[in-house]
C-alpha cells in the first residue's frame, strides 16, 4: 500500500489515516512502492497535501491524545475506557505503531519524494515547503521517541533496517532542512503550489515566517542541554531580521465525512463516546487565576456554573461520573458536531510570541522587543483565539497570580522562563497538547503536575517519552531496544512528579 499521489485535498485526511493503519502489515521499513530514490514523474505539488494531512493527523489526534492527557489538560472519563492505559502510563509498544507509521510513510517519505523529484521543472517552492514540513515532522518524531532512523530511513529499499541516529544529530539535521527549505522558497521563478498547499495556500512569506518560528522552537528545545548552540543559533536567526508566525498555522476542516478534525473523526469512529474529560490539575489552576478561558476550552454541564473536573486518572473511584468535556472549539466534544471544524494548530500565534519572549528572557534575541510586552501579547493572542477580547486578556494578566505578579517577582532568567512557559501552558490547552507536554519535559514548568491516580509506573515516575513501536521491534534489525517511559529524551530534564 502507498499514500502517494492522492489528488483531491478534500479527501486526504481520511485517506492518510486509513493508509497509516494499513501499513502495519508491511514486512520492511519501506514499502517498495514508496522508494524515495525512484520518484515518479507526476507533479510534486499533487503529493504535497498528503504530507500536510499526515502531519495534521499526528498533531491533531495521535499526539494530541497522549499530549492532552500527559500535560494534564484531559483525563479518562469515568464512564468510558478507551484511554485508560495512557492515564496509567502502562502502554505496549503497539500503542505507538500508528503514529510512527503515519510520520514515516505518509509524512517524511512523501516529503522526501517531493524533494528528490528532478523530472518536473519549476517546483522549487513545493520542494522548499517539503523541506520545512520534513523538518517539522522530524522534530515531531524525535521529540516523541528520542533517537530515530533518519538518513538511511528515507532512502527507500536501500536500507531495509535503517540505523538509528542520536537525537542530537537529528536536531542538527532539522536546522539543515529548514535552511534548505527557506533557500528554495527564495527561488526567483518557480510554480506556486497554490490551493494544493492546505496550510498557507502557497503564501511564501507565511512559509518563511513558519520556518523561522520552527527554527526558534527547535533551538529553544535544546536550550538546557546545549545552551551554547542554542544561543548561537538564535542570535544568528535574529541577525537576519526574521519574521515570525503572527496568525495560527492551521489546517481547516469541514463537516463532510473524512474531512473532519482528526480527533473528532476518531471519536465518531468510537461511536461518539466521550472518553476525554477535564483534569482537575489545569482546571484548578485556571480557577486560581480567575482565567475565563476555561469556559472556552471546556463545556459546562447542564445547570452548572463551573467546569466540572476530576483528579488526573481518577476514573475508577471518582464519585463524580459526569465531567465537563473538552469543547467543540478544540475538537474534543464527541456529541457536538461543531467539533468537526476545529482547526489543528501546527504553530499558533500565541506560541510564536512566547517563543520570542523566552529568547528575549535568555538574552539571546538582540532587538527582540520588550519582554513583558511579548508575554502580554502572547496571552492576548490566546484570548482572541478563543473568541474573547484583548481587554479580557489584559485584565486577566494584570490580576492573575501567575501573570504580572509572578513576572514582577521573577528576578532571575530562570524565574522569567517559568512565567513564560506557565502562561504558554495555559494558552495551549486543548489545542497543542503534545507541545505543552514537550515543554514540561524540557523545562519542568508548570510545577503543579501530579502523578495520575491510575499510574502503574511506580513511585513518582512520570511519562517522558514514547516507546518505539512494535513494527520496529519486529522488523528493524538495528532496533536499539526499548527505553522506559520514565527516561527522558536527550534534550529533556530528569523529571519526576512531586506529588
What does this entry look like structurally?
By secondary structure, the protein is mainly alpha-helical. It has a domain at 1-275 and 332-347 and 458-499: Serine Threonine Protein Phosphatase 5, Tetratricopeptide repeat (Alpha Horseshoe). Helices cover 45% and strands 3% of the residues. It contains 18 helices and six strands. It has helices at residues 12-22, 48-70, 84-88, 97-116, 124-145, 167-185, 204-221, 227-238, 262-269, 280-288, 294-297, 349-361, 371-385, 390-399, 404-409, 413-427, 433-443, 470-475, and strands at 74-76, 148-149, 164-165, 249-251, 276-278, 344-347. It has a two-stranded antiparallel ribbon with strand order 1-5. α6 (167-185) packs antiparallel against α7 (204-221). The longest helix is centred in the first third of the chain and has 23 residues, at 48-70. The radius of gyration is 21 Å and the shape is globular. Residues 1-33 have low confidence and may be disordered.
